[in-house]
Specification:
This protein folds into three domains: about 5-145 and about 265-330, FAD/NAD(P)-binding domain (3-Layer(bba) Sandwich), CATH 3.50.50.60; about 155-265, 3-Layer(bba) Sandwich (FAD/NAD(P)-binding domain); about 345-460, 2-Layer Sandwich (Enolase-like, domain 1), CATH 3.30.390.30. The protein is about 30% helix and about 25% strand. It has 13 helices and 23 strands. The strands form five sheets. Strands 1, 2, 3, 4, 5, 6 and 16 form a seven-stranded mixed beta sheet that branches. It has a seven-stranded antiparallel beta sheet with strand order 17-18-21-20-19-22-23, sandwiched between helices. It has a four-stranded parallel beta sheet with strand order 10-9-8-14, covered by helices on one side. Helix 3 (about 50-65) packs across helix 4. The structure holds NADPH dihydro-nicotinamide-adenine-dinucleotide phosphate. NADPH dihydro-nicotinamide-adenine-dinucleotide phosphate (NDP) binds near residues 177, 202, 264 and 265. NADPH dihydro-nicotinamide-adenine-dinucleotide phosphate binds next to helix 6 and strand 17.
């Protein structure tokens, strides 16, 4: 039998890679993990974690304004961008340390190098040019924002990677895209006092979300003062004499801003990884093709997380990692279940959602009951803020199964996590109806919508 340097070699120290390496090492397997940059991956270093910290930072302006309605007088306030960056950096460095410590404690070998495949069981460590072998290789190298090279002046634009550490907070920013990242950053920058414009090619932001969420959020963003340009795209970006960015759109508008941020999707990090040499197949987007058990077409090579472009979410990568370990090292084949994934958009107000949108459900089922509530959250009664919370349940009339639950409002992400459990368990509307409300909360509305607001039969609202 062939002998290898390692039982498992993991390429990539993000959420999926670290979880896999740590679990395998803690079983006593000989494990190495190579990371060329910082442990934690997109989520910890330049994604979910710093994003959420910046969301909190951007909410204070409204909190200060709202305070007066509750009797508080807040004195003069000011915001220090560099102080936020420094605080964020401290926190992600702490988390990075925890990732390393977890790997260390489990007994994994940490390699600070880029690693490339040179065969089905062989990896080259580029820092030392050393070759190492492993019985199994796991690729968990994630993705990066698409640079959109077809756009003249794309190199003058930033992506979410740079947005966290800009040398100075821009006075005005233009953000291209209508997905998670564009929408979240538009709200962050606006909250921090930046004159913010979002440009999106479609009719309304967040194309894959329920119509009520899209409409409700876009209206709320516009009401706050974010300019949202729809059905238009950037055609050209150039630098002005004073170092700003001049943008020409397809509709013929010219905008001058300090930064242009492109948030037009993310692509897998499969370049220069030696995939062709090792014979690993990729799809037309460059993502590694895997089966339900994260196996590539090469028996000894596996891939999971964003590099496989299944669902680009941290918890999904972690779940895929746990299934991979269970299957390969515990002899218990389990495949990740990608159905009914609850998710949140950390916009302001937030969106929390799980299951089908009304539009998706209308295509799949003949008769739907839609329960919808739109109301002013309690806090807004005293703060005077003009804002609305929207809650919506999409129910299959035939068996009363709740197919989708969608919330726009404060803490919608937290609610989506809990609703996700119920919907995953196959909850019916009758279960909602016999659940006692928690009062006074916003979420009690979810269990007190007794009559459908309308029905959708044969795809038509009746
Ligand atoms: P998304 O896929 O969410 O959005 C991409 C946006 O870019 C869409 O609005 C899309 O338009 C638009 N777009 C794509 N190509 C072009 C083009 N050629 N010209 C103009 N517009 C274009 O990607 P993001 O980059 O926002 O985020 C990447 C992924 O990261 C997300 O899918 C999500 O899985 C994950 N993520 C999750 C977060 C969370 O859970 N809160 C937060 C941030 C990211 P259209 O809709 O018309 O196709």
């Amino acid at each position: 039998m062939a002998t290898f340097d390692y039982d498992l070699f993991v390429i990539g120290g993000g959420s999926g890679g670290v979880r896999s390496a740590r679990l395998a090492a803690s079983m006593g397997k000989k494990v190495a993990i190579a990371e060329e940059f910082r442990f934690g991956g997109t989520c910890v270093i330049r994604g979910c974690v710093p994003k959420k910290l910046y969301v909190y930072a951007s909410q204070f302006r409204e909190h200060f304004e709202d305070a007066a309605g509750f009797g508080w007088q807040v004195g003069e306030t000011s915001f220090d961008w560099q102080a936020l960056i420094a605080a964020k950096e401290k926190e992600i460095t702490r988390l990075e340390g925890l990732y390393r410590k977890g790997l260390d404690n489990a007994g994994a070998t940490i390699l600070a190098t880029r690693a490339v495949l040179v065969g089905p069981n062989t990896i080259r460590l580029t820092a030392t040019d050393e070759l190492v072998t492993a019985e199994r290789i796991l690729i968990a190298v994630g993705g990066h924002p698409t640079p959109h090279p077809g756009l003249p002046g794309f190199d003058l634009c930033i992506s979410s990677n740079e947005a966290f550490d800009l040398p100075a907070l821009p006075k005005a920013i233009l953000i291209a895209g209508g997905g998670y990242i564009a929408v979240e950053f538009a709200n962050i920058f606006h909250g921090l006092g930046v004159e913010t414009t979002l440009i999106y090619r479609g009719k309304q932001i967040l194309s894959r979300f329920d119509q009520d969420m899209r409409q409700g959020l876009q209206s709320a963003m516009v009401a706050k003062g974010i300019r949202v340009i729809c059905e238009d795209i950037i055609m050209n970006v150039s630098e002005t004499e004073d170092g700003r960015r001049s943008v020409i759109t397809k509709a013929g508008e010219t905008l001058t801003v300090d930064q242009v941020m492109l948030a037009l999707g993310r692509v897998p990090n499969t370049g220069s990884l030696g995939l062709e040499t090792a014979g690993v197949a990729t799809n037309e987007k460059g993502a590694i093709i895997v089966d339900a058990f994260s196996r590539t077409n090469v028996e000894s090579i596996f891939a999971l997380g964003d590099v496989t472009d299944r669902v680009q979410l941290t918890p999904v990568a972690i779940h895929e990692a746990m299934c991979f370990i269970e299957t390969e090292f515990h002899g218990n084949p389990v495949s990740p279940d990608h159905d009914m994934i609850a998710t949140a958009v950390f916009s302001q107000p937030e969106i929390g959602t799980v299951g089908m949108s009304e539009e998706e459900a209308a295509k799949a089922f003949d008769d739907l009951e839609i329960y919808r509530a739109e109301f002013r959250p309690m806090k807004a009664t005293l703060s005077g803020r003009q804002e609305k919370t929207i809650m919506k349940l999409v129910v299959n009339a035939a068996d009363r199964k709740v197919l989708g639950a969608h919330i726009l409002g404060h803490d919608a992400g937290e609610m989506a996590q809990l609703l996700g459990i119920s919907l995953k368990a196959g909850v019916t509307k009758d279960d909602f109806d016999r659940t006692m409300a928690v009062h006074p909360t916003a979420s009690e509305e979810l269990v007190t919508m007794y009559q459908p607001s309308y029905r959708v039969r044969g795809g038509q609202r009746v």
